[in-house]
Write a structure and sequence with these properties.
Blueprint lengths: L1 H20 L4 E5 L5 E3 H14 L5 E6 L6 E2 L6 E9 L10 E9 L7 E9 L3 E6 L3 E7 L2 E7 L8 E4 L8 H12 L3 E2 L5 H10 L3 E5 L12 H14 L3 E3 L19 E4 L1 H12 L3
Parallel strand pairs: 3-5, 11-12, 11-13
Antiparallel strand pairs: 1-2, 3-4, 5-6, 6-7, 7-8, 8-9, 9-10, 13-15, 14-15
Helix pairs in contact: 1-2
The chain binds 1,6-di-O-phosphono-alpha-D-fructofuranose.
């Protein structure tokens, strides 16, 4: 597993260099979800694939930017699903973006995730590894140095409500409004990596991307976005649900499946479960 973490550190340094080169132009291609890919998405994807190809313990990889699983090493133990550059539509406005990695054993399913890593490309580059606990590293003078262990409090202060409000179910709108009518503060950039990183660093709150009238299964992809962050939040002593159940218990039928997702500290997640129990 350590070889995988070292490889991801290498990808982070190379992708940071690509971001700094500043090419935010669109390519001619669409990914399997139908998003037009930026040249930066494609280049980041190639960087990761090239670096992972040399890591012998990796059996298979699958990228959010590609349709199919790729086989690497027959004797490898681990399967990795990754989103090379999540939130890449924010690069042109110079907001933070990130890479997300879910590391699985046996099959690409929530119940088989054994570690998660994400990288935040912001004013600084930070890399977070969730395994037994959640450790944050920062890129300083060319190498990643340990900074702190991240742990959520029982209840937080931030509220990050995703998706198009006009498509929210009334009970979801009520939940979000109630939180704002209390002491919760709005924090939403449109990139799940920095938005969830903020909740983890500041001790807690709620990030929601619900099922909506136009997208009943939400937008966020299970393997590339939902499961890695669900694992990270659980290891940081928070929780992640789809409204009714733990997201890591949801079966995956297709590698690009999406699901509604709520990540947060325990009090906020219990509040979501209470509201959603009687609906849907
Ligand atoms: P892009 O990669 O297309 O920018 O999407 C980012 C993302 O998947 C996730 O990082 C955000 O939390 C979410 O979309 C934002 O979606 P909304 O703009 O619909 O709230």
């Amino acid at each position: 597993m350590q070889a995988i973490f070292e490889a991801i550190k290498q990808t982070a340094i190379e992708i940071q260099n690509l971001i700094e080169q500043g090419d935010t132009s669109k390519s001619e291609q669409e990914n399997s979800t139908g998003d037009t890919q930026l040249k930066l998405d494609i280049k980041s994807d190639l960087v990761i694939e090239k670096i992972f190809a040399d890591v012998k313990c990796i059996k298979q990889i699958v990228s959010e930017e590609q349709e199919a699983i790729k086989h690497l090493h027959d004797d490898g133990k681990y399967l990795i699903a990754y989103d090379p550059l999540d939130g890449s539509s924010l690069v042109d406005v110079n907001l933070s973006v990130g890479s997300i990695f879910g590391i699985y054993e046996n099959s690409f399913e929530g119940k088989n995730i054994v570690a998660a890593v994400y990288v935040v490309f912001g004013p600084r580059v930070e890399l977070i590894i969730a395994q037994d606990d959640v450790k944050m590293y920062r890129l300083l003078n060319g190498s990643f140095e340990f900074i702190q262990t991240l742990k959520l409090q029982q209840k937080g202060t931030l509220n990050a409500p995703g998706s198009t409000q006009m498509c929210w179910e009334p009970y979801h709108k009520q939940l979000i409004d109630d939180m704002f009518n209390e002491t919760y503060t709005m924090r939403y950039s449109g990139g799940m990596v920095p938005d969830l990183h903020q909740i983890l660093i500041k001790g807690g709150g709620l990030f929601s991307y619900p099922g909506t009238t136009d997208k009943p299964k939400g937008k966020l992809r299970q393997l590339f976005e939902v499961f890695p962050f669900a694992y990270t939040f659980e290891k940081a002593q928070g929780a992640a649900v789809d409204g009714k159940q733990r997201v890591l218990d949801i079966p995956t039928e297709h590698i690009h499946d999406t699901s509604p997702a709520f990540f947060g500290s325990c009090d906020e997640i219990n509040r979501v479960l209470k509201v959603y129990k009687n609906h849907g």
